[in-house]
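G., the chain you wanted modeled:
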Amino acid sequence: MPEKLPIKALETALDDIVSIKLKDQRVFRGRLTSCDMYMNLTLSSAEELEEDRVRAKYGSVLIRGNNILWIQIPD
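Predicted structure as tokens:
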């Protein structure tokens, strides 16, 4: 059964590919490499998506938790 606490769910998704939508409507996809108690995240092999197409490739990115609208993690 999946963990109900958001930070625990993120910790179990470490090294998985996740999608993240920011408050400014941008969507990023990449391998989750770290997270902290403020839900600040780092992604490797990060891509910015626009209408499900790759708009830009960034490599490693840091996303501040207060900018996140939602996070999609694999089942």
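The chain has one domain: 6-72.

Shout if anything looks off.
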